[in-house]
Write a structure and sequence with these properties.
Layout: E1 5-11, H1 20-27, E2 33-41, E3 45-52, E4 55-65, E5 73-74, H2 80-88, E6 91-97, H3 103-117, E7 121-126, E8 131-134, H4 135-143, E9 155-160, E10 165-171, E11 180-187, H5 191-207, E12 218-223, E13 226-234, H6 235-238, H7 256-259, E14 262-268, H8 271-276, E15 280-281, E16 294-295, H9 299-311, H10 313-320, E17 326-334, E18 347-358, E19 361-366, E20 381-384, E21 389-395, E22 400-401
Parallel strand pairs: 5-8, 11-14
Antiparallel strand pairs: 1-6, 1-7, 2-3, 3-4, 4-6, 7-8, 9-10, 10-11, 12-13, 12-16, 13-14, 14-15, 17-18, 17-21, 18-19, 19-20, 21-22
Helix pairs in contact: 3-4
Length: 409
């Protein structure tokens, strides 16, 4: 099931990739990535062995044509000038490595290897996830101490038909040694929520190192007191529940991409159904989608997001100097003791509008009512250390910028 992770480096100038001595020279300047050996194999081409911190990788590195398919989604914003350059590029450099069980680390390290080889690139085409990554973002991600979000490991692609029908399916999970995910017979009104269901389930798979087997129930969220427990079902079995489907049928699966190791997301209505292995189409949850559904964010992912938000506080401080910007921060406040879990303090994450920033922290105005923290109310102003920040958003006149999007600044 596990497929290699193949990325294509799209250079600023095509001459940059013609001479291997250029990237070998760049690697000699890197503190974190070391080139242990490089040799030429008759069938595999250039084979390099890298040491990233304490982890070893073998990579096949070969020139390749650049032809970006129409279905590839830009994961980041590109300027008109960058898009023009992308249209003109004809050659790139492919770099292929195999992931082990630590998929997030492997993805992160592949970006670090690319950045060490070429500190400035126009873009990187991540073929397994069919994503086009900004070169600026790649540089920031590689230089960060915090790995990228798990969503970068895969893409949820939406295929629309002549009517409102939408077929959602992932790309990229197979390089992690896992099955791809789908939702059949979605529609344009609900596909954003269905997208969130697939994304949340995929996160759970990645966090459990692929140990979630088809048929196993997984809690991914809730709405109106109804718990959303999903499971993965082989597409051939799941298709029987969708006789009206016109997308994702057998006729659409004439290659290995969508016919092998791919499962449809289904739903268990209750514990009895889960015990009996009686699953239901995901659309059974649709009536609750208008009631503010909340999807699960795991503690490890919350911790990763918080660390990235704190690491990139300097960008927030710089943006605050522009009075045209509005900035909100999410602060993790300790809940009242009655809401603690076995005497373990819990956090409620609440949004504040930034009123001032200094060397010691953020002064913010509470923008919502707290549910589990007494003594504060909407409109209250307080000062909080940077260590309490778990997320932030900068609203400029043109766009919104999160810690992951600071390459736009």
């Amino acid at each position: 099931m596990r497929e290699p992770s193949y990325m294509i480096i799209i250079p600023m100038k095509e001459d940059d990739i013609k001479d291997p001595m250029i990237f070998i020279g760049n690697l000699e300047k890197s503190e974190d990535v070391r080139l242990k050996s490089v040799e030429t194999d008759e069938q595999r081409g250039l084979v390099a062995c890298f040491l990233v911190d304490d982890k070893e990788y073998q990579a096949e590195i070969n020139p390749t044509d650049v032809d970006i398919p129409n279905l590839v989604r830009p994961a980041h914003a590109f300027t008109e000038e960058e898009f023009q350059k992308l249209d003109e590029v004809r050659s790139g450099l492919g770099i292929c490595i195999d992931f082990d069980e630590d998929n997030a680390r492997c993805f992160y390290d592949q970006l670090r290897i690319i950045h060490a080889m070429y500190p400035e690139v126009l873009a990187v085409l991540d073929c397994p996830s069919e994503k086009l990554l900004s070169g600026k973002w790649v540089a920031l991600a590689a230089e960060s101490k915090i790995p990228p979000a798990p969503r970068y490991l895969f893409t949820v692609q939406a295929i629309s038909g002549e009517n409102d029908e939408v077929w959602l399916h992932t790309h990229g999970m197979k390089r992690c040694g896992m099955y791809e995910l789908e939702i059949l017979c979605s529609d344009r009104e609900k596909c954003n929520d269905h997208y969130k269901m697939i994304e949340t389930f995929a996160y759970r798979m990645l966090e459990n190192d692929g140990e979630i087997q088809p048929g196993e129930g997984v809690f991914i969220g809730q709405a109106a007191g109804i718990y959303l427990v999903c499971t993965a079902v082989d597409w051939k079995e799941a298709l029987k529940f969708y006789p009206e489907a016109t997308l994702g049928t057998e006729e659409d699966r004439d290659d290995e991409v969508h016919s092998v190791d791919t499962c449809v997301l289904m739903l268990y209505k209750n514990e009895e159904d889960e015990e009996a292995g009686k699953y239901t189409p995901i659309q059974a949850f649709d009536p609750f989608l208008q009631q503010n559904p909340m999807y699960m964010i795991s503690t490890p992912e919350t911790d990763r997001m918080s660390k990235l938000a704190v690491e990139r506080i300097p960008y927030l401080r710089k943006a605050f100097e522009n009075s045209d910007n509005t900035i909100i921060v999410k602060i993790g406040l300790t809940t009242d003791e009655e809401y603690w879990d076995d005497d373990v303090p819990q956090k409620e994450h609440i949004w504040f509008e930034v009123k001032d920033v200094d060397d010691d922290g953020i002064i913010g105005e509470l923008t919502q009512e707290a549910y589990y923290v007494s003594g504060i109310k909407e409109g209250d102003i307080g000062k909080y250390p940077f260590s309490d920040v778990t997320d932030w958003i900068i609203f400029t006149k043109e766009c919104r910028i999160t810690p992951d999007d600071v390459y736009m600044l």
